[in-house]
Amino acid sequence: MSLERFINQAVSSWMSEEGPDSDIVLSSRIRLARNFENIKFPTLFSHEEAQAIIAKIEEIHHESSFSKFGQMELLKIDEIQPLQKRVLVEKHLISPNLAEESPYGAVLLTENEEISIMVNEEDHIRIQCLFPGLQLTEALAAANEVDDWLENHIHYGFDEKYGYLTSCPTNVGTGLRASVMMHLPGLMLTQQINRIIPAINQLGLVVRGIYGEGSEALGNIFQISNQITLGKSEEDICRDLKGVVSQLISQERSAREALRKTSNIQLEDRVFRSLGVLSNCRIIETKEAAKCLSDVRLGIDMGYIDHLPKNILNELMILTQPGFLQQYAGGHLRANERDIRRAALIRERLKMEQDKR
Amino acid sequence: MICQECNQRPAALHFTKIVNGEKTEVNLCEKCAQEKGEMFMFTGGSGFSFNNLLAGLLNIEPSVQKQSQNTFHQEEILQCSGCSMTFPQFIKVGRFGCAHCYETFKEQLPPVLSRLHSGNWSHSGKIPKRIGGGIHLKKQVENLKNELKELIQQEEFEKAAQIRDEIRTLEKQLSSSNKGGE
Q1: pTM for this predicted structure
Q2: Strands A221-226 and A205-208
Q3: Residues A186-196 pLDDT 10s
Q4: Which DSSP letter does residue B29 get?
Q5: How close B126 gets to chain A, by Cα (Å)?
Q6: Is the ipTM of this complex over 0.85?
Q7: Among A164, A196, A255, A353, which residue carries the largest CB count within 10 Å?
């Protein structure tokens, strides 16, 4: 398969399109946790109960079409290849937990991959909406629509006092996790991030790396999300998160401006060195690739580089993950083979842009 | 500061352990910390998961512990009729077994939830349509009544009067919406 065709198939809309403030905010995500009222949670449910839930979701999917967000497809976790699972995780369409630890898991996906409904993960149902740029309100509205659609067919576990009942007490209430993925190289370079993260934590928000809990902030990409789900309305949770994100955006912008003023040539040098590495490397590890991609993206945002599209960071960060590389290669690859493939893929991708000019 | 284990290298890790309310300061160099296995919490993964954290949080909550002991003394362990989960089990795994657990353990939950959600223990977001809008108003009235009490205690009578009027309007709405629903 040609790289161009592979990319076209592999890239979800949130990676290729641009949203508001997308020079800094890569994507916005909303997740709603819901459960059936009278079936045990996935930690305890039986094989039959798990099957019944999937059957119910299939029935809803077939009988009442929800065409607003396009055709949907149901994938059962035990029926898809391990590599494919990994690719879905790398695209943030399913959680690692669903891929690895949910034997009765399934996912209902829209064509543009903006909406995914995970079934039988930690909760019976997890609705997820992933939008490009800073679009929390829009993503929440979409998630609510999906929720209303499912609610017509399912009796959710709900309590007047505790709200939507979830398997883990940290999700009870709204069942909402709102998160925003941000590219913050300016705050990293000026070393402000170490001061900022504790402050964000104090506001009841969590800062993590690109692939969730415990993951590193690869390529200066940070995920910021709410911790509290009980006692605040969905709108308030999103508004509070958006408030902090807007602050971060303006701090990141002023950090970039300060860098331009104080060390313009050094920054330009850094950007073009990284571009040089990416265009010429023959072996490259995930970490180095992420660092260089971040530099190049910063160079694009700040106008040093004008021949590359902005979404190259989002796209290549995902496409150079182990699962994708192996899918592109068409089979299993060892770590050192992946580093070679990664280098080749990045070079080829950059050459595609050169050829376009 | 020098590492307390080898007394040679400078300490690189400083943390405070709190076990049953007892504080211990620990200062180790990186090498000793790795040898002592204290590093597990910094390397992520390797068995130290959110579950452990949550279980730890639930365990140190004194009122939860007291209550679970009480039920033990009465030789009546609280067990959910929906999924047979007991409260000690819940504390251990940090996950409920079914929606009914919230009802079964309702006496024990407020301190647990308020700890996890910065002092909140009552939902104020979306409500499924089948349950209806009446709850929302009821909730608002409840919140305002609490506020009213506080204001009276603080002798803020002017503000209290405003809140009282608000409660009256909401109660009127509530009774008319109830009639409408009948």
Answers
A1: 0.78
A2: antiparallel
A3: 999 998 888 88
A4: -
A5: 7
A6: no
A7: A164
